[in-house]
Write a structure and sequence with these properties.
Elements lengths: L6 H14 L3 H21 L2 E2 L2 E3 L4 E3 L4 E2 L1 H11 L6 H21 L3 H19 L4 H17 L6 H7 L1
Antiparallel strand pairs: 1-4, 2-3
């Protein structure tokens, strides 16, 4: 019996070694940016007066205020139990702006990810239970950030080194 690896085994071993060299900080940064973008864009639909989309390059600077459609959304579509629509709209708009900013900066990353994971759970179980494939991806990224942290390209990393 030969102990020489087959060409396929050798190729797989080399591929695994290459993949293992992907920096975790790059994965964390991509995860932070991607999840932050999802929640930020959702938050932007709930406010007026301040619109920032760095990907599209559109900026409308001004004082943010809750849009009337946000309250209607919570009253008519989301219908969260035990939470008045006015409060739910304010909480969601604030959380969908503050937590993504913290995630992008890598400041309090694990706690920001925990907050967004809580929002994801509410959305999954109380609002859109059929969207589990999407919410599962968000949850996986957020859990990874909670377990592994934000990576080197973050304020958290800079603070930890001081």
């Amino acid at each position: 019996m030969s102990t020489t690896p087959s060409p396929i085994t050798d190729l797989i071993t080399r591929a695994h070694a290459l993949m293992a060299r992907i920096p975790e900080s790059a994965v964390a940064l991509l995860g932070r940016f991607s999840v932050a973008a999802v929640f930020w864009k959702s938050g932007q639909t709930k406010i007026e007066g301040l619109q920032i989309d760095i990907v599209d390059g559109s900026f409308e600077l001004g004082w943010p205020r809750l849009s009337s459609s946000a309250v209607d959304l919570f009253r008519d579509e989301y219908q969260l139990p035990l939470l008045p629509p006015e409060l739910g709209a304010v909480m969601a708009a604030a959380g969908e702006h503050l937590l993504p900013l913290l995630l992008l900066a890598g400041l309090g990353t694990r706690f920001a990810a925990l907050g967004l994971l809580g929002m994801t759970a509410v959305i999954q179980f109380l609002v859109y239970p059929g969207a589990y494939p999407t919410h599962g991806v968000w949850a996986a990224v957020l859990l990874w950030l909670m377990v592994r942290g934000p990576g080197r390209l973050s304020i958290d990393h800079w603070l930890a080194r001081r």
